[in-house]
């Protein structure tokens, strides 16, 4: 029998962190961040949170990462109050590269189609 608890907890964390970022975190560096995915380990001790940013500038991405790292304590505290877990998972924020990868693939396909015409 498969255990889906880690995925359910991940979906709940995703929903709650998006809400916390919108309503509780006042840092302007994290205003344009969207949480795209959450991966929770099987023992629910760590959660890797993937985020995307509207800006492609490296300076904006660095500022967003710094803002998330600074707000990590507040986000974890809020999660602990909202979730009914024995222990709140340790949060790790990583930039979601799948959006940029998808854009790169689209660009390659577009160039391929232009060369055939």
Description:
With 117 residues, this protein is of the alpha+beta class. The protein has one domain: GMP Synthetase, Chain A, domain 3. The chain is 54% helix and 19% strand. It contains 3 helices and 3 strands; from the N terminus they run αββαβα. It has helices spanning 5-23, 58-82, 98-116; strands at residues 33-40, 46-53, 90-95. The chain has a 3-stranded mixed sheet. α1 (5-23) packs across α2. The longest helix is centred in the middle third of the chain and has 25 residues, at 58-82. The protein is globular, with a radius of gyration of 17 Å. The model has no long low-confidence stretch (mean pLDDT 88).
Descriptors for this entry?
3 helices, 117 residues, single chain, 54% helix, 3-stranded mixed sheet, alpha+beta, GMP Synthetase, Chain A, domain 3
Radius of gyration: 17 Å
Which architecture per CATH? Answer: 2-Layer Sandwich
Widest sheet, order of strands: 1-2-3
**Tally of discrete structural domains:** 1
CATH class: Alpha Beta
Q: What's the pLDDT, averaged over the residues?
A: 88
Enumerate how many helices there are, as a single number. 3
Sheet with the most strands?
3 strands, mixed
User: What overall geometry do the principal axes of the alpha carbons give?
Assistant: globular
Named CATH topology: GMP Synthetase, Chain A, domain 3
> End-to-end span in angstroms?
53 Å
**CATH homologous superfamily label:** K homology (KH) domain
* Uncertain residue ranges: none
Number of strands: 3
What class do helices, strands and sheet pairing give? Answer: alpha+beta
Portion in strands: 15-25%
Give the SSE string.
HEEHEH
| Fraction in helix | 40-55%
